[in-house]
Amino acid sequence: MKHRIASMPGDGIGPEIVAVTREVIDRTGDKHGFSMDWVDFPNGADHYLKTGETLTEGDIERLAGCEAILLGALGDPRVKPGILEKGVLLNLRFALDQYINLRPVKFFPGVEVPISTKGRENLSMYFVRENTEDFYVGLGNRFKGRDNRAKIHLKRKNYKMEFDIGVNVEGEEESAYQIGVITRGGARRVIKYAFELAVRKGKDKVTCVDKANVITEMYGLWRDVFNEVAAGYPKIQTDFAFVDAVAMTMVKNPERYSVLVTPNLFGDILTDLGAGIQGSLGLSPGGNINPEGVSMFEPIHGSAPKYAGKGIANPVATILAGQMMLENIGETKAAQDLESAVYSVLVERKVRTPDLGGTAKTRDIAKAVADKL
Q: How high is the pLDDT of residue 167?
């Protein structure tokens, strides 16, 4: 079988980690009887500086024709922050309706972490982060003056909203606003996915994360929908936690959590904390999931431009993103095999990049994983 997969290396260390990950996935395919038809997409800083384009409608149509997308990283000091991230990453999430951001947090054997692992050796948490609403919908403005009126139109695949906002500010200070949006339908599909994930992974509890004590309207709706969905899964325990309390508990008692479902912004923050307690951003993969369409897989770390070209970036997060991708396209046995190979390399402690206290190169880690296969 041949799988048509989009490859978008992006910026900084992205091209290096994607290149070796593709080699590892190809090796996995050789062992398990499938191959990859890689389709290259240059979208990133160099492409933007050359053409002025981030992501065109034609690009989106071609990406929609692939089974999945493997993304490296986006961000470059030559480009103003937000242009590439919004123009490519967020644009893809919205255009392909990748409404789930799935980020596992695990303690890897053989990796030193900043908190005690005693009794937590098999810790495994899954963050199910809403991916297309909340404060990331792009509704906002900066202005200066006494009066500013703006009509804002928000269109998504499943709904359209219009806001006519009047702002009256005394004085000449610059002001800004950013509006978050949560819809009942958007919350329901994400929360339902979290419960279904708990069933598939054999987890017995789902935690609802929010800040409903302060942001009462948006996150009050979020809680209401959680309760409605939870009623359909009577065998799964539930609890509620404010985002700040979750951050504290992740450091003190992370074993309390199994599956956490979060609005967009809080999930973005907490999963970086999760990467910290598991030892390195270089170990943390993520998936932007459309269960009915095209999903995109990436490491959760950034482009790290100061390390670009040095060949020392840890590719494990990208390899594990590829492992998630294999599972998503139905190559379950291959995904399990690849994950076991990564674990074996980590537990041996022989090959380590600088973020894990070693001197190995990017390609050394990839070769060690491929050899384990």
A: 67
Do 206 and 340 reside in the same domain of the chain?
no
Task: Kindly provide the residue ranges of all beta strands, DSSP E only, lying in 218-347, ordered along the sequence.
Answer: 237-242, 259-262, 285-289, 295-299
Cα three-residue angle 23-300-118, rounded to 5 degrees:
100
Find the catalytic residue in 30, 224, 244, 371: 244
Q: How many domains does the chain have?
A: 3
**118, 243: one domain:** yes
At residue 152 the predicted structure's pLDDT band, cuts being 50, 70 and 90, is low
- Region 284-291: what's the mean pLDDT? 95
Structural domain harbouring 361: 1-109+284-373
State yes or no: is 210 an active-site residue: no
* 268 catalytic residue (yes or no): yes
Q: Quick one: how many helices (H) and strands (E) in the chain? A: 12, 14
Q: Are residues 299 and 266 in the same domain?
A: no
User: Which residue among the candidates 86, 211, 333, 372 is catalytic per the annotation?
Assistant: 211
* Residues 3 and 104 reside in one and the same domain: yes
Closest CA to 310 of 276, 353, 352: 353
Asked if residues 91 and 48 have their Cβ atoms less than 8 Å apart, the reply is no
State phi, psi for 225 to the nearest 5 degrees: -65, -40
Which CATH number characterizes residue 294's domain?
Answer: 3.40.718.10
Report the candidate in 7, 3, 2, 1 with the shortest Cα–Cα distance to residue 318. 7
Instruction: Indicate if 216 and 257 belong to the same structural domain.
Output: yes
Domain check: are 119 and 268 in the same one?
yes
Compute the distance between CA of residue 167 and CA of residue 152 in angstroms, rounded to an integer. 13
Q: How would residue 120 be classed by pLDDT, with cut points 50, 70 and 90? A: confident
User: Which of 26, 46, 272, 337 is an active site residue?
Assistant: 272
Residue 264 and residue 122 share a domain: yes
pLDDT at 148: 57
Interval 53-99: pLDDT, tens: 999 999 999 999 999 999 999 999 999 999 999 899 989 998 999 99
pLDDT of residue 241: 97
272 given a catalytic annotation: yes
